[in-house]
Amino acid sequence: MSAGCMRWLLSHTMRSVCSGRPGYWTPTLKSAGLCETHSIIASSWRRSAFSTDVPEEQAPAANKKKQDPRAHTSISSVGRKIPHREVQVISETGENLGVMHRADVIRIMDEKDLKLVLLRGNKEPPVYRLMSGKQIHEEQLRLREKNKTKAAPVQVKELSISAGIASHDLSTKLKQVESWLEKKHHVRLTLRAGHGQQASNLDTTLEQMVEQINLMVGYVSKPKVTREGQVAMCVLRPPSAKELALKAKNKTEETQPAGTQSKAPPVSDTPEELVQQ
Predict the structure, then answer these.
(1) Which of 32, 48, 66, 183 has its CA 20 to 30 A from that of 192?
(2) What pLDDT, in 10s, does the model give residues 193-215?
(3) What is the reported pTM?
(4) What percent of the chain lies above the pLDDT cut of 70?
(5) 112 within 8 A of 130, measured Cβ to Cβ
(6) Is the Cα torsion angle 10, 14, 19, 20 positive or negative in sign?
(7) Which residues of 1-24 are buried (b: 16+ CB within 10 A; e: fewer)?
């Protein structure tokens, strides 16, 4: 084969490879190894020119969750590594021991087998309290119940009553109110004047109905007449702990013989109250 034919075949083959067509391979080119060489060049060129692969970017590091500064941390012992040199110390009985060096605090902890709990870290010097393991456990339970009470949303149930309601139906509705109050819900009671009835003293009538409830209740809003005297409304709530304690105290005083006085049980101060003192 002449040199001119060889050049023509080679140029024709290169054009075929670049245009994506298989081209025409002669036995001479195959024997010379040009077929494999051009195939490798063409395939590598096509990958570099038309490849749509994008290098994988490194996934950004997951953002660390920021701790809510308002989140309540449970009370716990700081151990023997007290970060402050001098601290204000409150004893396990609630006595203010004043400002002490941390070495003296550790000595008392060892002598009485007590633990140290941080009460106020933003004061200067910070306030700590010596507590036993039992005291810490009881305080953790108290804080847990307190947080649970705060987190529970208050539901308001509504109940409408007609002024001409029968006594049996009224008793059934008041039992429903009692069940709601036992579940710590608030109850909005509405008393409506009946058709053709003269609306008078609806607030007094509503208050008398509330007195028939077999539970102790408190008022969010007392009976009040609205809508041009056609409706009386009030909102009931479960009694607070203070109201229950006062009722129990009054009941105890009523049952005691005259001339005797009840001895009030000692009230233990919480760590928060001790700091405020």
Answers:
(1) 183
(2) 876 565 678 889 899 999 999 98
(3) 0.41
(4) 64
(5) yes
(6) positive
(7) eeeeeeeebeeebeebbeeeeebe
Give me the long-range contacts of 57-61 (CB less than 8 A, separation at least 24).
Answer: none
> In what helix (H) or strand (E) does residue 218 lie, and over which residues does it extend?
strand 218-226
Compute the distance between CA of residue 104 and CA of residue 240 in angstroms, rounded to an integer.
43
Q: Cα separation of 266 and 24, whole Å? A: 107
CA distance 169 to 159: 13
CA–CA distance, 142 with 28 (Å, rounded to integer): 95
Q: Which two tokens stand for residue 241?
A: 């702990």
Tokens representing 227 are: 């809508």
State how far Cα 114 lies from the chain centre. 32
β-strands 127-131, 86-90 pairing: parallel
What's the CA dihedral at 45, 49, 53, 58 to 10 degrees? 100
Kindly state the average pLDDT of the residues 106-118. 89
Read off the tokens for 74. 């449970």
Return mean pLDDT, the chain: 74
Q: Are 190 and 223 in contact (CB under 8 A)?
A: no
Please report which helix (H) or strand (E) contains residue 27, including its range.
Answer: helix 27-32
Tokens of 238: 């479960």
Residue 215 and residue 176 in contact, taking contact as beta carbons nearer than 8 Å: no
3-state secondary structure of 164: coil
SS3 of 91, please? coil
The SS3 call for residue 86 is strand
The position carrying tokens 């989140």 is 71
